[in-house]
């Protein structure tokens, strides 16, 4: 490809609204342009990268025996109502009505559609297992699109769904997908960590996210450097490094705490650590009022709570709603007031420790409150607090390390949530009807592209892994006159005929501009031919990742091709 025939709108300056490297560089390198909040145009260079990632995904999925489909993006509301997710998906799902007042969703995911499609096609255990997938545009009405294409409203996803006669078969496919995902991300040049994760609204018994450690990540990962345990903090069981020792206040009595409603205010006033207090969190879901008590220095983990109570979402109660339940906001006692509210105690609490708690009385707290003495029939404590760095590994008790991560892939064991909802049954080996079990597996293609840039950039721009670079070789020519131009064109044609992807910058621009564009865009290999070649036969070849340039005297096209092929193979080998 010749740059003179290409749309190549590179920029010198960073866009004002781009706060992360991938967003800045995708704009500056001419890969994308913004349409509106969370929506992007893909230009030819950016589209080439996307298509290469898609092809890697396709090859690895096909190698596992998965079958590619293409389903409608528009999905009838009937499908979502059948699974119970028409309301559960909330405001993030784009919904539309046609001229006949029929409701549809712009698909954020396709469990329902594939279930509907495959129900009449699967008759017997002999048809199983089957793993189906598509690579398709998805939609999500993000409340705050950010970080360019990392969190956008329209995105390309590879979504796959497997159907099985039993859990053993599901386990086999789940592990095959796990291996395939590692291969996909390795081939894309991404260093990923599989971590245990919460299944959220997807449901199911188990899931893992493929995370890329990055300071811009929106997820917190907890990692064990001793045994290799890894988990999203949403999923990590809380095991405290140590429990409270002796308490400042052991005698039970009421203390005046005028206007002190927060844990921080109370602990400062009384001179106790926040871990010696009990925090009350009042929430409401669609059908439940919930009151959670946990140690004052900890945060509630909503994902654990929702999973435990089997609810899709919750939100804080207002002060008025709290008072209507007979409670005093900021001064709630751990003694449950009535049966109108679901009460949970987090396992961070010690039953025999004298805590500072609310007194159920305006402007008063109680010191020396011991749970096992004050609450009759104390229930089993639940794990609903958020684990943190320094808490203990659930496998080996080594202190956990926290890292920020970007999710690029997610695999789930869904169980029978969708197959039951859609009545997907086959005849088993004994001729009896059996409901299938199901898995699903997603990869964000645009997000993978942006995350590669987050890992592969420097002060000059991007350095693409050669497997997904828009072009493998940049040919930069610095020539005067037609004779020199036609000579460089001979180099271009030879390389192209050898099957090497070449982007020839033949624009009538200065050498500095061309070289900077090549480094900004991030072509893995650059060949520069200019004045020295026409004087002494000298050519330079540059490795973008290593930022290393070597010069040699041209001795023939075979030698040049061999040098390029050697560098290509080196760069591909680094991906394994």
From TrEMBL:
A single GO cellular-component term on record: cytosol
Keyword Nuclease: no
Keywords from the named record: Aminoacyl-tRNA synthetase, ATP-binding, Cytoplasm, Ligase, Nucleotide-binding, Protein biosynthesis
Molecular functions (GO terms): aminoacyl-tRNA deacylase activity; ATP binding; proline-tRNA ligase activity
Tagged with keyword Nucleotide-binding: yes
Catalytic activity: tRNA(Pro) + L-proline + ATP = L-prolyl-tRNA(Pro) + AMP + diphosphate
Database matches in Pfam families: HGTP_anticodon, tRNA-synt_2b, tRNA_edit
Main location: cytoplasm
InterPro entries: aa-tRNA-synt_IIb, aa-tRNA-synth_II, aa-tRNA-synth_II/BPL/LPL, Anticodon-bd, Anticodon-bd_dom_sf, Pro-tRNA-ligase_IIa, Pro-tRNA-synth_IIa_bac-type, Pro-tRNA-Synthase_IIa_type1
Gene3D superfamilies registered for this protein in UniProt: Anticodon-binding domain, Bira Bifunctional Protein, Domain 2
Domain Aminoacyl-transfer RNA synthetases class-II family profile: from-to ranges: 38-465
Subcellular location: Cytoplasm
Family: Belongs to the class-II aminoacyl-tRNA synthetase family. ProS type 1 subfamily.
Subunit structure: Homodimer.
Function: Catalyzes the attachment of proline to tRNA(Pro) in a two-step reaction: proline is first activated by ATP to form Pro-AMP and then transferred to the acceptor end of tRNA(Pro). As ProRS can inadvertently accommodate and process non-cognate amino acids such as alanine and cysteine, to avoid such errors it has two additional distinct editing activities against alanine. One activity is designated as 'pretransfer' editing and involves the tRNA(Pro)-independent hydrolysis of activated Ala-AMP.
HAMAP family on file: Pro_tRNA_synth_type1
Written domain comment of the UniProt record: Consists of three domains: the N-terminal catalytic domain, the editing domain and the C-terminal anticodon-binding domain.
Official protein name in the record: Proline--tRNA ligase
